[in-house]
Design brief:
about 160 residues; alpha+beta; Beta-lactamase Inhibitory Protein, Chain:B, domain 1; 2 domains; 4-stranded antiparallel sheet; 4 strands; rod-shaped
């Protein structure tokens, strides 16, 4: 499990424990108050109100886990056979920089034909690869892309 996922999980567990404790104490307090006062039945609303933040917390944390999609090292066969899941290898291609310094022919051999080629600049090429729809709230309507910038026949940037 990645460090960020582990920290998110620990935070979730701690917040869940705190919320359940507050809910439990609210119910106990409300029941004791009801035993002493006949008009205090409305205090049972307090524990029920604690269920709203608990539900919101669960929704928020599940969304965070959903957005933390799996990542993997670049695999040429997987890249070619599963274009809709290429986003899982994006971070590896950017961080480890295996494409930097390759020729455009080597890039085409490694990644295949790009979805789009931008050659407006005279000595630059930009290969754009569609890498699928990662689980994200901001990119649900359009696929994510990986751009490979080539200058003077060599890869200089990947993002």
């Amino acid at each position: 499990m990645q460090e960020a996922s582990l920290q998110t999980y620990i935070l979730f567990v701690l917040l869940l424990i705190a919320e359940v404790s507050i809910l439990f104490l609210s119910v106990i307090y409300s029941i004791r108050y009801l035993q002493r006062n006949s008009f205090g039945w409305y205090l049972l609303i307090i524990p029920l109100m604690n269920l709203i933040p608990l539900a919101m917390l669960g929704l928020t944390i599940s969304t965070v886990f959903w957005l933390d999609y799996p990542k993997q090292k670049f695999n040429q066969q997987y890249w070619a056979s599963r274009p809709e899941e290429r986003y899982t290898m994006e971070e590896d291609l950017i961080e480890t920089k295996p494409l930097i310094g390759l020729t455009n022919e080597q890039v085409l051999q490694m990644l295949g034909e790009p979805s789009y080629v931008d050659s407006e600049a005279t000595d630059e090429l930009v290969y754009t690869y569609t890498i699928g729809y990662p689980p994200s709230l901001k990119t649900m309507d359009r696929p994510q892309i990986l751009s490979v910038k080539i200058k003077a026949g060599l890869v200089i940037e990947v993002h």
